Amino acid sequence: MPFPPSIARALASLYLSDDELDRLSDLHYQDAGHGYDPFGLHPDFVGLGHLIAGPLYDKWFRVISRGHASIPEVGPAVLAANHSGSIPIDGAMIWMDVQRHTHPPRVARAIADHFVPSLPWVGTLFARSGMIGGSRGNTRVLLENGELLLIFPEGTPGIIKPWKERYQLRKFRVGHAELAIRHSAPIIPVGVIGAEEQLPLIHASKRLGKPFGVPEVPIPAVPFPLPVRYRIFYGDPIPVHEQYSPDDADDPEVVRKVAAQVQAAVDVLLKQGLKERKGVFA
Amino acid sequence: MRKKSGLTGRRNVLITGADTPIGERLARTLLADSRVDRILVICGGDPSLHPLADNDRVVTMQVDLVRARRVRELLFGPARDHQIHVVVHLAMHRSPKARGSRAHAFNVEALRGIMELAERHPTIERLVLRSDAAVYRSRRDLPVLIGEEHPLNIGVDVPQWVRDRVEADVTACARMGLGRLQVMVLRMAEVLAPGTGSQVFDWLESPFCFRPAGFDPMINLLSLDDATSVLHKAIFSDRQGVFNVPGADTLPLSACIRAWGRIGIPVAEAAMGPLYRIRSKVSGKQFRYGINRGRFHFSGVLDGARAREVLRYVPAHPIDWPVG
Questions:
Q1: Is B306 exposed, middle or buried, given 0-12, 13-18 or 19+ CB atoms closer than 10 A?
Q2: How far is A122 from chain B (nearest CA, A)?
Q3: pLDDT tens-place string over residues A173-221
Q4: Which residue on chain B is closest to A35 by alpha carbon?
Q5: Which of A150, A173, A175, A270 could form a disulfide with A108 if both were Cys (CB 3.0 to 4.6 A apart)?
Q6: What does the alpha-carbon distance between residue A249 and residue A181 come to, in Å, rounded to a whole number?
Q7: If you measure CA to CA, which chain A residue comes closest to B248?
Q8: What is the ipTM of this complex?
Q9: CB B18 within 8 A of CB B50
Q10: Is the full-model pTM beyond 0.80?
Q11: Residue A41 distance to chain B (closest CA, Å)
Q12: Residues of chain A with confidence (pLDDT) below 70
């Protein structure tokens, strides 16, 4: 970033109270020597992330969430969520929500597609807040360090869905299941309701994305996200670490089965959430 | 007859590139170790000017490693006479300006020749190669934490400075476990010190450091003390293999600029190459953007798990940053 952590902290203090800043200083992360972890996360920039995402979380999307008890206080775990909304605001809201409801706060390390780290400024800001590029090596190290991963098993096809297909999950990829089994980490299904309606999609352009190395660029019907109400529901942990040994991660059948199990659990959370809500903005 | 030194026994050591800061410091460290009797120090320049030239336990020599016959005469002459057990190969062109077949002969063929001769040498049992983190490829889809299996930076568009380092590294790896010579390759993080061939050090020499706008990758840097420490451990180890050697300092490029007391200026990617070409032409500096393009965009930090487990190496000496 073009400015040091001290400035990030000063900026964050414009929005966060001293208590919240102190709470953030208790973040669980591996300091590699200069206050940063090897992937670039810095607690003061996480605070800066609150300055940006906090007002959206509190005021714009008015996030309601439940089931936080499913998130382990320590140790490796994988949050597997549905992905939607044309731009990854759902990831930012889960990131905020997890920090607000874990003690000491945990950073959900969101796994992004390969093109994200190559986006100028965005890639750096995301890295400072805990996001990492989705390579096998990165995820392995984080789980070995007992971190909490946030994975969207639908991938980019999930976030760019036509309006008529909202809340219809794309087939889950299996990487999250393989990781969880190999590293004996529970999978916590996460259902996000609301994001599907924030930026109704008109078209997704592959041509526009090509110069930036982005698979598709969404062209939404509105210029900015609508103030929909976000609901984030955490399901019961799927204890793959109790059901399978790490070696089972090499078995394609087992991995597919677990991925399908996770998809079914997320689907249940979505259906519950949709049934409960009284309106998109309510 | 090959004389066995034993794994914990005494070692006589030959150091190529001994007039570099790492070589000189290693020689001093070995002198302080009572298990080392004799150190054969090979310099590129005048051996009488080496700071340890007057020491009784040090033999200084100038040898042109590009010439195979001189290398043979060294190994089967003084090295045999002094019963050298371990060769530490540090000789490598530090300047990217060194190009062409002679530079390649020095960077790669010299090592190939030393290894071939060492296989049938009566006393040499072990070769330690100082390799470089520059051998690893840096790309957006590759892990930030670099293990020893990370893809190497091979390709036709790769500068010779990097290509030679990769070839030397692979040459050493190719001999591992096949003959009687024990081979250890240490892929060191960049040593931030003058005279070590550090591109980052040269980059930080200017009061203004340009970097690609919008990118601030994590880098890992090694101190001279840690570099010396791991070479010392490697000399007395009985293990073979490739080991990453990270340093104690992992930080973003922008923090590195600040800690060195410089001013960072983000500029458009397209301007980086021309700017540093002009700088190089005007001031004769060694930094080449083409060599560093990948790591100036994408984070790359060496994973030292294997070195920690096998060599008991943990970086313990952070760099002495001028500004906090």
A1: middle
A2: 8
A3: 999 999 999 999 999 999 999 999 999 988 888 888 887 777 888 888 8
A4: B251
A5: A150
A6: 5
A7: A33
A8: 0.89
A9: yes
A10: yes
A11: 10
A12: 1-2
